[in-house]
Q: What sequence folds into this?
């Protein structure tokens, strides 16, 4: 073959090859564009939509892709996959506003220390993925994870793996590393000659506080969390007091910088002094809050601050911790009942991780709220629409309504008659995808 004929043949082959490459990619793009989102229908025997109204019987929820597109009593459209929950009570997916997926039990200092000293961060992240799946299978389709307890920014990685579909779990908002001033959070008590890990990020001074907030946001924090107090104790006034960690200037700098960057702030605040300091700083949520007084409750109502009581784990760890902890559980019950009457915003958070994820079902928290005076629907709303409001996702989550994400759970009994039913979730859908269906397995 002459050089000219060879060059012409090579040119023709290259042209044909480039056309062959272009056609498949073009067709794939067209196919992706043309593929309609999956549609399915759920027949709900009883629907608690989370808005606080009456139970809707024999409802049909039409889901398209990851969204709810209609709620009717009509027959499902022809050709649409039907999920029959006609003997079940259907509710919005649950939301837990206080978890620690990277922690697995924290009754004693030994429980805590050995996790930081003997378990690598990669190993803890593997367990965190397991814990996220446990939460999802219990019906919690969304969680706010409030610090990694020494595992740096691994919560961002767990969140990302769930978002990318690598592992199953709830959607997450994360707080990465909580903050305290130097020396005010474990690990403590070891020889000064040893460099041991810490469960938090040590932050000192106003400029240090602002820098820490910026660093955490840079690495993926959705929330900022700090420890407002420690050293919980009772004095002659019978009020639960505490030692405040940050100066007012430091705490205010944390909150101001977080808000400037569009992030909200959660404060661990158990004693009355720590709660008061956090409220002065302008935090968005008070975590735990055992020592709330009437005056502090009124201040929370005035400021619109939300209380996340975390009763379940507090009651679980109290016997093992001893000291004031049992009395603190009793005190929190009284505070809860007063806060309910005074109109304090209350949303559900469990502190899961303070207990072993395999031992306690997060939905136990609903039962505490009902036992402490809420109606069942009020308790349900703390872990649905009220929690969604705290996250800034009330337009996407918290109720079963047209246009919202298709996060749906089902139980066999009636939780408005027996709130414990929420601890026995049989069906879970997140973003329009069924992740658990024990009902189908029995039928």
A:
């Amino acid at each position: 073959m002459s050089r000219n004929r060879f060059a012409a043949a090579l040119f023709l082959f290259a042209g044909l090859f480039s056309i062959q490459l272009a056609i498949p990619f073009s067709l794939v793009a067209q196919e992706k564009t043309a593929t309609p989102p999956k549609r399915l229908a759920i027949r709900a025997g009883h629907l608690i939509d989370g808005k606080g109204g009456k139970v809707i019987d024999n409802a049909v929820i039409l889901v398209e892709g990851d969204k709810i597109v209609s709620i009717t009593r009509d027959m499902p459209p022809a050709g649409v996959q039907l999920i029959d929950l006609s003997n079940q009570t259907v509710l919005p997916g649950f939301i837990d506003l206080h978890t620690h997926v990277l922690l697995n039990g924290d009754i004693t200092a030994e429980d805590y220390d050995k996790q930081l000293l003997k378990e690598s961060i990669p190993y803890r992240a593997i367990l965190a993925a397991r814990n996220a799946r446990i939460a999802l299978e219990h019906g919690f389709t969304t969680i706010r994870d409030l610090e990694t307890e020494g595992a740096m920014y691994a919560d961002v990685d767990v969140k990302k793996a769930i978002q990318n579909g690598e592992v199953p779990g709830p959607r997450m908002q994360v707080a990465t590393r909580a903050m305290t001033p130097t020396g005010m959070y474990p690990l403590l008590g070891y020889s000064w000659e040893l460099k041991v890990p810490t469960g938090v990020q040590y932050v000192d001074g106003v400029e240090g506080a602002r820098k820490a907030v910026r660093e955490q946001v840079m690495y993926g924090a959705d929330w900022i969390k700090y420890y407002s107090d420690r050293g919980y104790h009772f004095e002659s006034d019978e009020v639960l007091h505490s030692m405040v960690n940050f100066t007012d200037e430091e705490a205010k700098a944390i909150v101001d910088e977080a808000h400037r960057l569009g992030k909200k702030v959660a404060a661990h605040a158990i004693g009355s002094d720590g709660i008061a300091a956090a409220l002065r700083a302008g935090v968005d949520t008070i975590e735990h809050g055992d020592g709330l007084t009437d005056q502090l409750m009124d201040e929370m109502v005035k400021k619109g601050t939300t209380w996340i009581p975390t009763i379940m784990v507090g009651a679980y760890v109290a016997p093992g911790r001893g000291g004031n902890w049992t009395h603190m559980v009793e005190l929190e019950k009284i505070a809860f009942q007063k806060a309910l009457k005074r109109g304090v915003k209350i949303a559900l958070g469990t502190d899961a991780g303070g207990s072993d994820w395999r031992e306690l079902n997060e939905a136990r928290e609903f039962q505490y709220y009902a036992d402490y005076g809420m109606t069942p629907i009020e308790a349900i709303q703390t872990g649905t629409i009220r929690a969604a409001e705290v996250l800034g996702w009330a337009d996407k989550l918290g109720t079963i309504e047209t246009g919202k994400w298709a996060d749906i759970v089902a139980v066999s009994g009636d939780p408005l008659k027996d709130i414990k039913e929420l601890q026995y979730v049989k069906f879970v859908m997140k973003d329009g995808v069924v992740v658990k269906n024990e009902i189908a397995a029995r039928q």
